[in-house]
Design brief:
Helix content: under 10%
Radius of gyration: 14 Å
Mean pLDDT: 76
Number of strands: 4
Number of helices: 1
Low-confidence stretches: none
Largest sheet: 2 strands, antiparallel
Shape: elongated
Amino acid sequence: VDERLPEAERYSYVHDCRAEALDHLLLSPALLPAMSRVAVSRGNAGVYGRREAEDRSALSSSDHDGLVLYLRP
């Protein structure tokens, strides 16, 4: 997870009430200058167990939040 994110946002998975940074993005040195920002799509980590018990739909399909990489053209 990008170190430029606020410290409280540097996680993509929650296990036993502990936020963890398990998911990563790897960029080549040539691609790094094209990166404009990184975000974490919130909605899965931290609520997966509750949703799984309530709902068997796509809302409970993952226990990780996806990483979003924004690139300049």
